[in-house]
Amino acid sequence: MKKIFTHIFLSHLWKKSIIAAGYVFALATTILTFISIDKVLNSINHDTVQFRVLILISLLFISVLIAFLFLFREERSNHKLYSKEKTSINVKFDDMTKYITNNYNSMPYTVVIPINNHLEYIADKNKIRPNSMHGYWLDQMLRSGFSKEEIEKKVLGSIKTNSKSVCKIGDYCYIKGIVNVNYLLVATCELNNSLQPYCSEMQYFAGIQSMIDAISHKCNIQEKVYIPVIGGGYASMNKSNQELLEILSKVLHFNTHKLQLDINVIVYSRLRDEIHITNLL
Length: 281
Prior knowledge:
Structural class: alpha/beta
Distance between the termini: 20 Å
């Protein structure tokens, strides 16, 4: 519950309360069509202005309570940032790794995998953090029957770069049809001498924008796309997961004119107490 009563949350609560009040008062009006409020109040000896005001306040309180419960439920599950024609942008709590898997029975979808810019490590399990999106993707590729050499060949054959060892931030490759899942690998960080990821704010924005451009060019219209909160593991970013999610959502919203897709930003469920998705635009 901490940090839930922010300015943005209260703004959403006000808007939802107005909508809820419309339904509550409509229901009350419908009931009063069949039941006389004067007779009810007379029967209980409370036909006073004060009691009528109390009823009005009670209806308003019920409206706010309904709006709060609705927003709180949304806060704990998912939040729609944008929806128009063939484009939707949603943020929801889930486990990103469940989408990095075999997909036999559903329509193909795309999963965004942030990677570092050192291509020589792209398929090296000793250099990739096992609990990162890159690490989960690499495990899935190996489970799907691809060797280290085949994975390297797929990436190097798809990514547009002049080097076979290092690419620049924003470079990407799109690998289609891995057990009915498409993977968009985007270089969003560099590695220092200790193999720790880092990137500047300018690099971060460049990586996100390149990812969005790639999604708009490579994915099919109305295809489902799943994106993690990019940058959460960058020690040098000095940004909280909430701040990173807000940046990502704003850049996505800014690019809605070029997107005709079902975009889903996935926030790890274990971050529910740290991230509040109804605080987003």
